[in-house]
Amino acid sequence: MSPDTLTPVDITSPMCPAEYPVPAPGYLNTATVGIPPARVTAAMHRALDAWAAGRPGDAGDPEEAVAAARAAFARLAHVPVTQVALAGTVAGAVGLIATALPPGAEVVAYQGDFSSLVHPFAARPDVRLRLVALEELAGAVRPGTALVAVSAAQSADGRVADLPAIRAAAAAHGARTLVDATQSVGWLPLDASQDDYVVCHGYKWLTSPHGAAFLTVRPGAEDTLAPTFAGWYAAADPGASIYGPVAELAPGARRFDTRPALLSYVGAAAALSLVEELGVDRIHAHDTALAQRLRDGFTALGYSPVPGTSAIVAVPGVPDAVTARLRAAGVTFAARAGKVRLAPHFYNTAADVDLALAAAEQPRGRASASR
Hints:
33% of the residues lie in helices and 13% in strands. It is of the alpha/beta class. The longest helix has 21 residues, at 280-300.
């Protein structure tokens, strides 16, 4: 079902109250870090306690959690599990792609995108990195462009990239596409099968621990990458490959695995199970309804939020006095690129939004002093 056809959601109630028995009122900062559900902390506590007791196997095989997290991400990204590699960071996954580009290759990217997506290409002086405005990205692809890189949703202001147009332009000119889905997977439906590479760190909208990240590689694009960072974990038979060169790498994207931080993936497996249970379409409807309530409220107060239907709300021109009032009221938010950034998720309700709007409501400047 398309998110646009979903029935209205009840944003006065949390989506999963049992997972957040002690909610944090006013927490609107998922675009910085998501709050883990109870099942995540429980799974990680079990693993830590077993480890501390010298019996790590008592909490179950962590490799089973790694496999579950990989499979869950594959389902969320709508790709076969064979196309999902494990990563530790976005920059590391992008670096794998950047190092494989031939000298002189042209990469087109958005000029204000997150540095982990852009800098690995800038770090190669023999690669031509061309930075353009987000709305100009599709039109900037030309003959000779090797790769287009963009975040599905922008960290600084929540704008959602026109991925269909970017993909069409890339296909027309023989370029490949790289999408950073860190600020989108978990609230925005994504079909990663349409892109050559998709990277995602799970600590934001997937409410997973830091260190659980993923890279999808479309069939055919595997041949463009070299397993430069491969170790024994990327082998077809890891247990038989712990010494000397790896005799045979794993098939598919798993040959690009980096050794996972096991505790992080124990948490990620639990977190992704909740996202799947709730459903991304339902989360999308819930999150964007709360975000629209924020935009409408700030507009009514005389501000001009960045327009769109993103779950990330960016409000420029908020005075320091107002941000101080927000903090004093217990609202948790971020300041990015000269804007106040608020990002509601499935643990939020209209009460969190209204808390922020009530704190922001105050006379704005001398002309409003009599209000």
